[in-house]
Amino acid sequence: xxxxxxxxxxxxxxxxxxxxxHKPSAKLSVRDALGAQNAxxxxxxxxxxxxxxxxxxxxxxxxxxxxxxLESLQVVADSSFDxxxxxxxxxxxVQGQLVKSLSKRQNVELKAxxxxxxxxxxxxxxxxxxxxxxxxxxxxQYPHLxxxxxxxxxxxxVRSEATAAIHSFFKDSGFVHIHTPVIxxxxxxxxxxxxxxxxxxKIKVPEENFFNVPxxxxxxxxxxxxxxxxxxxxxxxxxxxxxxENSQSRRHLAExxxxxxxxxxxxxxxxxxxxxxxLFKTTTMTVLSNCxxxxxxCHRFISPGQKDRLEHMLKNNFLIISYTEAVxxxxxxxxxxxxxxxxxxxxxxxxxxxxxxxxxxxEERYHFLEQRLARSGLTEAYQWYLDLRRFGxxxxxxxxxxxxxxxxxxxxxxxxxxxxxxxRFTHSCLL
Length: 431
Prior knowledge:
This protein is of the alpha+beta class. Helix content is 31%, strand content 24%. The chain contains twelve helices and 15 strands. A six-stranded mixed sheet has the order 7-11-12-15-14-13. Strands 2-3-4-6-5 form a five-stranded mixed barrel. Strand 13 (345-350) and strand 14 form a beta hairpin. The model is unreliable at 10-20 (pLDDT under 50).
């Protein structure tokens, strides 16, 4: 019997008559489906979440979105597909033909042949309602769900595009990307607002012996970039930084992202400022080019007038002045102004956002640093920093840009908690 079955199976596989097979549907994102140039009935498969349901006598209309674009894809189906499971928020897989749409609102639509509900959604219990524009303050209560709304979807797509644009800018400018550590023994900014890292009580090693020295979550990658600038003339990092600030203001987070760069053989503050301005303008132009609908949504419904302010920033040179220039302006404005020590540093301040960029030329004089460290009792801890000046030191400088504040600046978002996927701040660490 076993031999006969094998023979029969072999005969079937060798038969000259081919078995009828349907061509598999091509899987498309909503973005690709909407941008399809040839909508001539190609069979496709689209997966996503229902944003709206509208049923007529003989036709069912669904709008499906998968996060790839602000615009949803219209699905047209026979009314026989209508069911309670096809509700706002439900996840679906739709197979059918991509055809030219008769509606003026979209170029193409999906004529459904099969609709499968992957995950049900109780629309009544779902905290976001169809056609209701919820305030950003309300959305913050649901960090696990708010990404499904149009506004957070747009903000996070812009965030993703800006991240890629920043990396592209530095790569095209000849910078080397450095992964600076999150755990560090250095307090770069000296502000004292640090999160100390200690092992869990379950670990038997005494906590003071794990690293042998106190360690913290990083507040900046500057010192590590200074190390790397001794081997690479241009370096940058882009990663999370932490501040233990006891603040719930709209400008502060306990965890946020910083873009930082360090440049060797740099003697002019003006040269540093040009890199800062180039980073801002190049990144912003890329975002505006690749995410026009998402940026427009924020400018129209969240911050009217921001579009004009942003265009002004892109068309004109930044009004960036060094601390030295600021001192001279203040001296001329007031005879009672007390002069402060001259430093080669610069900040870019944005109304409503605060400090966006901060940069400076670094102190390279070995004996000056040696004396300052000795007075502070830090010579032993920062001997490595002196070594950088002893062995092939060069004039160098760098800057940092707060990434969330950058997003606030270009989109006009008032609260920094609304431009990061999962905000962490004092008394709040949801998820």
